[in-house]
Amino acid sequence: MGGSTTGRRGPYAGTAARRRTILESAFEVFSEAGYRGGSMRDIAQRIGIAHTTLLHHFSSKSDLLAGVLELRDEHDQPGLAEAGGAGILRQLVEVVRRNQRTPGLTELYCILSAEATAPGHPAHEWFRERYVRTVGHTRAALEQMAQRGELREGVDPAREAQRIVALMDGLQVQWLLDRDSIDMAAQMREYLRRVSVPEI
Amino acid sequence: MGGSTTGRRGPYAGTAARRRTILESAFEVFSEAGYRGGSMRDIAQRIGIAHTTLLHHFSSKSDLLAGVLELRDEHDQPGLAEAGGAGILRQLVEVVRRNQRTPGLTELYCILSAEATAPGHPAHEWFRERYVRTVGHTRAALEQMAQRGELREGVDPAREAQRIVALMDGLQVQWLLDRDSIDMAAQMREYLRRVSVPEI
DNA sequence: CCTACCGATCGGTAGG
DNA sequence: CCTACCGATCGGTAGG
Hints:
Chain A is mostly helical. The first copy, chain A, contains 9 helices and no strands. Chain A has helices at 15-37, 40-46, 51-57, 61-76, 86-101, 103-115, 124-147, 157-177, 184-193. The longest helix of chain A has 24 residues, at 124-147. Chain A is elongated.
């Protein structure tokens, strides 16, 4: 796929595109084998370059991982912030539905988050912050729902937010192990219905 | 710690004990680094033997992993089967409480289950079967509760069982990333209270 | 239970 | 963007 025969249109013109190509290959490899298990030679081979060439675009293997996580960040942010209250819950189901269509992203987060629970892991802090952010957004949405009277009685926004995020992660493990065993989006929808007031 | 100076009491007398020592070291290493990331040399070094000696007790690295999983199986089975109906839900909270006291086991399952979502992984089938078993037991308990009228209206045993197991797994990821951020047992208890009829 | 060693693979450097 | 190469480490074998 890589290694076009057309050549560059100007000096450095292909660098940004090359970085992108590399990150997509790294994304694939890390999704399948994790960070520890994925090799730079494998990443390079898939796009037909020498593994040392990666080090002209990224200073180290962990820098490559940082690039992959940054790239996914851009893709995942939009949407969740805009909707208010119960709208966010519907968007969470939408996120799960999208994950179900793009297993690669689900694999990446699943394997990397588990690997990154080790304190020395290069993605450890990134995942810690990601959970603070994700749980925080969900909590804010639930608090907004509470103010609007959309939240079912007895639901604590802070603890419920942790459970919702935990449920999403846990469903993914079962789904990745056996994709026919579970319908993640349906499970999520059914669960979230229990959090809102019955009328919604 | 290992390598006693007393010598053996008889031929092969120490073999079973040695196997046990090796498995405990392997358990530690796989918990911290996963299967791919954990090395036989590390496992051996922790108990003061050469890594090749491991291969006198286990035929390969994946055989070592199988031994570790088998060992944990023995530890985890008791209890869950005995109690009936709502008693099982209380025991689930007890399991979570125990996980919270022994982080090593939690780490092992978390990192290995994510790694083992890859189809070629030596523990892939083990985890698939484990989920069938765990979800199945939980489902049976919920069905028993339904027959006794202990289950809240609208709760589907099969899908609820998948969610309960998913919740346990997901809580563990957040907990391992930041142990002060979450009280797994309390979260579990609070959630399960929502599954039973209010009187229980 | 050991030493000695195998071929393979790892991330990264040197130098062009 | 490459070749050539580094030292380290991997799982496993041979042979005692």
